[in-house]
Amino acid sequence: MLGDGLDALDAESRSRGREEQDADLARSDTLTGLPNRLAVDEYLPEAIARARRSGSLLAVGVIDLDDFKAVNDRRGHEAGDQLLRCVAHGLRAHLADSDFIARLGGDEFVVVFEQLETTRAMAQLDVSLERLHRAVEPPFRLTAGEVVSIDMTMGLALYPRDGIEPTALLRQADAVMYQAKRIKRQRAQWWQVGGEATPEQITEAPFDAFGAEARELMCGLEPHLQAVAEQFSASFYGELQTRPESAAILAYLS
User: Fold this and answer.
1) Considering the entire predicted model, what is its pTM?
2) Is-catalytic flag, 107?
């Protein structure tokens, strides 16, 4: 009788353990091991409630890796995935215990900074963000022996100034991040806080079609343009060969 009761308790304990493990997996990003979007949706309302009770500020940041698509396209998805894991590990290692980080998807991450004092929130953020940027300052060495350098852009929204609901804060941080990416060649820092500038206030430097930025862009695009040109030529001349008159002209020209 006692043995049956102990067996039942043991089975119930194992079942609870499996349920907790499944719940943890559901809130974890399979690629990086960071919390995922579901975890953000659960964490952020609780963080806002803590800030409301304590009278402190809270910052929500959305991070996007600069030119990650170029790495993915030129070196392959395996290299891109490895780079994401390295960046995720570095970001988590450079955050305080009271901060939260998750992967939203793709090359986007969200960071929540809690316990910001109303009188010195920006000074606290300056210190935290300078430390966080160290995660991407050294080049990343991938398993294939390749060395990759990458930077990132962050948009920040402050509670309660920029919103009091999780979705509003995330939306504002995301909008500010894209605004900052538009001026990444001219900006003074890798992050921007909501309210610092509006799209109408931003004046982008004129683009020099023959300048260093243009040459850098063309170098990155050259392999893709070459592949497209070769594919087009093969398709175009292949089609001409199926037409007797066109084939005769091509034969004469060659």
Assistant:
1) 0.69
2) yes
